[in-house]
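ok so I'm stuck.
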Amino acid sequence: MRYYFARRQKSAFTIIEVLVSVVLISIVALGAVKLQQESRNMALYLSDRSKSELSNTLFLGKEVMRYHKDEKDAYSLLSKTFKISDDQSRDILKKSKRNIFISDSIALSDETLPIELNEIMLKGEYSSRFIHFKIQ
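replied:
not stuck anymore, here's the structure
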C-alpha cells in the first residue's frame, strides 16, 4: 500500500515558482504603467506646445515690428485690425502675452536681393523664433 501512495503524488508548482512568477508579472505591469504615464505627459506637453505655437501666430502681424523689448498681449495687437466684440474672446486674447524682441536687420550674402530680414523672438511659456521678410 505504501507503494501506491508514493506513485500517486501530483506534480504541482512550488511556492518559490509562484512567487517568482508574481514578481515577474509585477515588474512587467509597473513598466507598462510607467510607459503609459510618460506617453500621457508627452501628449500633454505637445498639446500645450501646439496651443502656444498657434497663439504665437497672433503676434506676427506688421505692427509687431514696432514693439521691440515690449510685453504685449494679443488683443492690443489685433484690436487695431479686427473688431473684437465678444467679451470671452477679448479676455482670452488679453491673457495671451509675449515679450517681443526684434533683431537688427540680418545681412544677406547676396546684396542683389532687395529683402530685409529680421528675427522676431517671442518669449513666453514656450519661446519661439520667426523670420520677418520685407521686400524693399
